[in-house]
């Protein structure tokens, strides 16, 4: 008797809930009105999100300088700069899109995310301002493409990110090694270094370093996806892609970079390991230079383009680059654009090169610094030999934030799945993302 | 508490005929004997007063708990991804599609299995450690007792984020003292051993931390329970020549049962919902997601992948599982004739 | 539940008279005490290591040969934490959030507990069951609808939307209320009803009785309850992580701590110093209320 009375007491509210749920589908959770704000306040605080780099101090210094210059010009404004971790940027950015009121005004974003962010309605269309910007003339068509969607401009290119092979000159000399000219030589060198220096990684490559892996896939003739008509289809499970991927994941093994440590390594961590003197080689970018200079390997490293499978071929690099954009919901549009044009302008691109090694995106600045520094040579060489890019679709943002590719690599290096099985699974997930993006 | 338990024991001595009494009577043992029901204060026509007192609580709960739970259920029936949130595409009622997608996904079943096994392991270890230490507390003098109590309070007070951080550091492959000690003890396999690399070693590490920060609740509560057992009962049992086992079975166990039910249920609820530890210690779910539990899985689906509908469906599944636990709890309470 | 075979007997002095708690024979007791001390040390070790690492110089923290002591204690890590990370600000934010949750939930739970204990009315049991079920709701699963709720609330009521401390206080209030009500019932019950009758006869109004008689008597219970509300609000990093979007000045301690986790290399000294700063207030609070806590737990257990 008591049992029934108790369950009755429970059943009533439960039933009410279910009923309410079934009948009230009309009042779905509201969507954010991600419309452009009509307000354009000329004073107050503008919030800026920039990425936290491996060695962030020099970046902060340059940005501080820019902020000082900016606030001198606009005396009643404050610029609040936050450095956000690249790994969790997707979460932060989406939260910002979901509540434009709480969003920052200016953001740094990777060119792989342009399509996704625009699709989510997060970035402001600044085509008009871009047209009037004095530095716009130094933006090449292909670089402009990386900040544009359907002919509209959504940002200012800040720097070009190209990766190449860093190696330890002292270790190579000690072991009588030559800078690797093929991927086979690269593996041999890695094994030698690990064997002679068991406390070092032969090469610090990680299962989370997507942009370090891609050149291996591309140089083997594979790709992440193929474009057929308007839609992409995953190609990471093709024979060529698998071959290239295997060349890379074979480096993450006991005899060069043990998976216990390297399965969790991303690009930044790989660079840091090398900078700390714990690796014989690393795949790093132009933007990693200052981290090396401030690390234990200062004066003991050199850079060559990442070799291909055969001699005389350079592996196609990922055409990375970071941009500065204005958020669509900003209530300080004019100020935000001003700040973007200042920090993204020639003067500060040049300063960022001096501070970090970031290769300027503006051609005139690029030429200027190329004369100055022999450091840029391997990167320019890599750029000239041709670069490749990830699928230009909003689905890539999703694939990226779901960590499809890192998960695939981790499954392979931890021995949980074969290359075939892991790539097949990844391809399935990618295709699902492509089809849901339409 | 001693005073509270005594009448319950006295009640147990009553003739078996008691069980035949109407159920409502059993629901409210407090009403029995001590004072006549009519003496229960101004309770005959309370009118609106109780609702007035309840109003703030009900308002907060309705707005901030019931409504979000309702929304959670609602979103789980919708196609609700970033495009819908941003207003790019209309939301669409898709019935059980999210659930169907979930149940088709191998990873979900894997995560569910890990969650249940991990929670079970945590609950059992926490209870075993907590209860044995509670018994230990009753057998020692003041100084060691205070030491253990203080240490336990310290572990209890440590926030999960800091606790997780410290434990990860203790087990760090190169800087952590644990590997050094294990190597020093002759277990050379632990030199530079990475605890977070393997699925089971990572879960073990998290389990150790969870037990460390949650056994104090069990220990202190059970200890309070043991202390509350009326000494006369134990004395009398000893006079009767009852064995230790018999004393435990006949006196301690029935008296401690409500305490044990509470700590078990609370442990289940807490350990099933472990979030911070997994998130911090395995860096959001471990290598290739091997250490995901439902809670973290739902969070990743919703906030990293923007699959809000799918994330909500996982949330609903969790809620239903915990609700089942609650029902078991209510049944146990009721069987004891507990007054709500 | 079988009835224990206890028969009342005239009290006679006995050789077997057992003091309470039952003490085992001497060697066993010594072994038990040794075990208790060792276990206490093991349990306290992580905390010791945390504080130690916070005071160690950088080189010793990240050393291949960690030592369980340091000869050069220093405050560098704390300086890093407070200067670089503005921990002071986050500390205050955390205090504001936890404090507001504690005070509000104590007041609201006190009223609610009084209602369900001192009155009989329709739906009373249903309500109690709802309070119990509410405790089972997984906070993390609700982060999704909470996010949208807070966003919309922010449009209607400025000051509680996303990015503000209000968006942290409200959810915690909701999540700590059910347990607080559940726990407070025991304390309200423990206050004799005759007191209320006496007050009524003296002509005190119900409100006066409530605040001037009942409230002070239940205060110890409120303190015990507040430990749980405080801890849940103080420790949480899910809501600040999801709700404090760009307003770093409204961040709380757990978020600030996560900043020290860097993909490349963790600043363990800073992390440990931050952890120490974060743990200390909770520990102090705990030690202050530990007596009440134990009796509070017993009360909640008894229900």
TrEMBL record, chain A:
N-terminal signal peptide: 1-28
Any one Gene Ontology molecular-function term assigned to this protein's record: maltose binding
Pfam families for the chain: SBP_bac_1 (PF01547)
Gene Ontology biological process: maltodextrin transmembrane transport; maltose transport
Keyword Protein biosynthesis: no
Cross-referenced InterPro entries: SBP (IPR006059)
Presence of the UniProt keyword Nucleotide-binding in the record: no
Keywords recorded for this protein, A-Z: Signal, Sugar transport, Transport
SUPFAM superfamilies xrefs: Periplasmic binding protein-like II (SSF53850)
GO annotations of cellular component type: ATP-binding cassette (ABC) transporter complex, substrate-binding subunit-containing
Assigned protein family: Belongs to the bacterial solute-binding protein 1 family.
Protein name: Sugar transporter sugar-binding protein
Organism from which the protein derives: Streptomyces bingchenggensis (strain BCW-1)
Biological classification of the source: Bacteria, Bacillati, Actinomycetota, Actinomycetes, Kitasatosporales
TrEMBL record, chain B:
Region (Disordered): 1-43
GO biological process, one term: transmembrane transport
ABC transmembrane type-1 domain location: 112-329
Annotated Gene Ontology cellular component terms: plasma membrane
Name of this protein: Sugar transporter membrane protein
Annotated source species: Streptomyces bingchenggensis (strain BCW-1)
Low complexity bias (residue ranges): 30-40
Keywords, comma-separated and alphabetical: Cell membrane, Membrane, Sugar transport, Transmembrane, Transmembrane helix, Transport
Superkingdom to which the source organism belongs: Bacteria
Membrane topology value: Multi-pass membrane protein
Transmembrane segments: 51-70, 108-136, 148-170, 200-226, 255-272, 308-330
Keyword Plastid: no
Locations listed in the record: Cell membrane
Family: Belongs to the binding-protein-dependent transport system permease family.
TrEMBL record, chain C:
Compartments it resides in: Cell membrane
Biased composition (Pro residues): 1-11
PROSITE patterns for the chain: ABC_TM1 (PS50928)
Stretches with biased composition (Basic residues): 12-21
Transmembrane annotation, as ranges: 30-51, 90-115, 127-149, 169-188, 209-234, 268-289
A GO cellular component annotation in the UniProt record: plasma membrane
InterPro entries reported for this sequence: BP-dep_ABC_trans_perm (IPR050901), MetI-like (IPR000515), MetI-like_sf (IPR035906)
Membrane topology type: Multi-pass membrane protein
UniProt entry tagged with the keyword Transport: yes
Source species, domain of life: Bacteria
Domain ABC transmembrane type-1: 91-289
BP GO annotations: transmembrane transport
Region spans: Disordered: 1-21
Presence of the UniProt keyword Nucleus in the record: no
Record keywords: Cell membrane, Membrane, Transmembrane, Transmembrane helix, Transport
Sequence similarity: Belongs to the binding-protein-dependent transport system permease family.
Protein name as annotated: Putative sugar ABC transporter permease protein
Originating species: Streptomyces bingchenggensis (strain BCW-1)
């Amino acid at each position: 008797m008591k049992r029934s009375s108790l369950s009755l007491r429970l059943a009533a509210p439960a039933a009410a809930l279910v009923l309410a749920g079934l009948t009230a589908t009309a009042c779905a959770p509201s969507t954010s009105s991600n419309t452009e704000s009509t307000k354009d306040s000329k004073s107050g605080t503008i919030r800026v999100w920039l990425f936290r780099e491996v060695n962030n101090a020099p970046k902060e210094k340059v940005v501080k300088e820019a902020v000082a210059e900016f606030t001198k010009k606009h005396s009643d404004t404050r610029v609040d700069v936050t450095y956000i971790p690249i790994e969790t940027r997707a979460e932060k950015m989406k939260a910002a899109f979901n509540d434009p009121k709480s969003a920052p005004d200016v953001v740094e974003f990777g060119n792989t995310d342009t399509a996704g962010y625009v699709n989510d309605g997060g970035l402001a269309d600044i085509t008009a301002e871009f047209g009037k910007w004095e530095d716009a003339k130094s933006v090449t068509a292909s670089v402009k493409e990386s900040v544009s969607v359907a002919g509209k401009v959504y940002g200012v290119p800040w720097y070009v990110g190209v990766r190449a092979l860093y190696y330890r000159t002292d270790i190579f000399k000690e072991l009588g090694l030559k800078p690797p000219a093929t991927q086979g030589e690269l593996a041999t060198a890695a094994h030698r270094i690990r064997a002679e220096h068991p406390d070092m990684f032969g090469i610090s490559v990680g299962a989370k370093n997507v942009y370090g892996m891609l050149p291996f896939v591309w140089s083997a003739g594979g790709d992440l996806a193929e474009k057929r008509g308007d839609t992409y289809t995953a190609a990471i499970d093709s024979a060529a892609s698998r071959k290239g991927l295997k060349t890379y994941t074979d480096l993450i093994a006991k005899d060069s970079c043990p998976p216990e440590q390297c399965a969790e390594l991303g690009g930044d961590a790989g660079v840091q390991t090398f900078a700390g003197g714990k690796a014989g080689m690393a795949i790093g970018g132009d933007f990693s230079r200052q981290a090396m200079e401030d690390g234990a390997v200062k004066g003991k490293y050199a850079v060559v383009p990442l070799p291909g499978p055969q001699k005389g071929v350079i592996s196609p690099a990922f055409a990375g680059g970071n941009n500065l954009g204005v958020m669509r919901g900003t209530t300080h549009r004019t100020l935000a654009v001003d700040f973007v044009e200042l920090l993204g302008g020639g003067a500060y691109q040049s300063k960022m090169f001096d501070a970090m090694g970031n290769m300027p995106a503006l051609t005139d600045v690029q030429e200027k610094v190329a004369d100055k520094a022999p450091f840029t040579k391997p990167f320019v060489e890599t750029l000239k030999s041709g670069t490749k890019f990830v699928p230009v679709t909003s689905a890539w943002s999703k694939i990226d934030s779901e960590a499809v590719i890192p998960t695939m690599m981790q499954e392979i290096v931890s021995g949980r799945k074969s290359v075939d099985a892991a790539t097949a699974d990844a391809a399935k997930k990618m295709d699902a993302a492509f089809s849901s993006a339409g | 508490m001693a005073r509270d338990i005594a009448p319950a024991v006295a009640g147990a001595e009553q003739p078996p005929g008691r069980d035949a009494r109407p159920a409502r009577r059993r629901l409210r043992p407090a009403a029995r004997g001590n004072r006549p029901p009519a003496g229960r204060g101004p309770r005959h026509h309370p009118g609106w007063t109780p609702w007035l007192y309840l109003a703030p609580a009900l308002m907060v709960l309705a707005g901030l708990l019931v409504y979000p739970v309702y929304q959670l259920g609602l979103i789980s029936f919708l196609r609700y991804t970033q495009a819908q949130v941003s207003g790019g595409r209309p939301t669409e009622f898709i019935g059980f599609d999210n659930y169907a997608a979930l149940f088709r996904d191998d990873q979900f079943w894997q995560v569910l299995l890990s969650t249940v096994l991990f929670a079970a392991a945590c609950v059992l270890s926490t209870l075993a450690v907590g209860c044995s230490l509670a018994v230990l507390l009753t057998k020692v003098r003041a100084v060691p007792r205070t030491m253990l109590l203080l240490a336990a309070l310290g572990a209890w007070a440590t926030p999960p984020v800091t606790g997780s951080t410290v434990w990860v550091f203790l087990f760090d492959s190169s800087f952590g003292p644990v590997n050094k000690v294990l190597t020093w003890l002759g277990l050379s396999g632990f030199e530079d051993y990475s605890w977070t690399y393997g699925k089971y070693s990572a879960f073990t590490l998290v389990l150790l931390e969870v037990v460390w920060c949650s056994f104090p609740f069990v220990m202190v509560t059970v200890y309070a329970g043991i202390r509350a057992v009326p000494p006369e009962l134990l004395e009398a049992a000893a006079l009767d020549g009852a064995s230790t086992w018999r004393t435990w079975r006949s006196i301690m166990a029935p008296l401690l049962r409500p305490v044990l039910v509470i700590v078990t249920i609370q442990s289940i609820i807490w350990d099933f919902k472990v979030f911070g530890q997994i998130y911090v210690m395995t860096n959001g779910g471990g290598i290739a997601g091997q250490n995901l539990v439902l809670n973290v899985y739902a969070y990743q689906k919703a906030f990293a992948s923007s699959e809000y509908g799918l994330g909500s469906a996982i949330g609903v599944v969790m809620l239903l599982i915990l609700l089942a636990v609650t029902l078991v709890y209510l049944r146990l309470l009721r069987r004891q004739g507990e007054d709500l | 539940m079988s009835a224990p075979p206890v028969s009342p007997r005239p009290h006679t002095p006995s050789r077997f008279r057992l003091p309470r708690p039952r003490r085992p024979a001497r060697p066993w007791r010594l072994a038990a005490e040794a075990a208790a001390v060792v276990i206490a040390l093991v349990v306290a070790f992580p905390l010791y290591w945390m504080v130690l690492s916070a005071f160690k110089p950088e080189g010793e923290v990240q050393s291949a040969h960690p030592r369980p002591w340091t000869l050069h204690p220093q405050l560098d890590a704390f300086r890093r934490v407070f200067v670089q990370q503005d921990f002071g600000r986050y500390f205050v934010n955390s205090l504001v959030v936890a404090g507001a949750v504690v005070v509000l939930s104590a007041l609201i739970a006190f009223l609610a507990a009084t209602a369900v204990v001192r009155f009989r009315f329709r739906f009373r049991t249903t309500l109690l069951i709802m309070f119990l079920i509410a405790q089972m709701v997984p906070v993390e699963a609700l982060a999704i609808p909470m996010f949208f709720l807070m966003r919309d609330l922010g449009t209607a009521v400025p000051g509680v939307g996303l990015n503000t401390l209000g968006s942290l206080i409200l959810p915690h209030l909701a999540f700590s209320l059910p347990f607080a009500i559940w726990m407070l019932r025991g304390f309200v019950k423990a206050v004799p009803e005759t007191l209320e009758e006496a007050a009524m006869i003296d002509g005190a109004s119900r409100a006066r009785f409530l605040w001037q008689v009942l409230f002070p008597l239940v205060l110890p219970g409120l303190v015990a309850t507040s430990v749980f509300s405080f801890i849940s609000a103080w420790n949480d990093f899910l809501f600040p992580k999801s709700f404090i979007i760009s307003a770093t000045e409204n961040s709380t301690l757990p978020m600030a701590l996560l900043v020290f986790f860097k993909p490349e290399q963790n600043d363990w000294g800073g992390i440990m110093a931050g952890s120490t700063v974060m743990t200390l207030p909770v520990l102090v609070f705990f030690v202050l209320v530990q007596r009440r806590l134990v009796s509070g737990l017993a009360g909640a257990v008894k229900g």
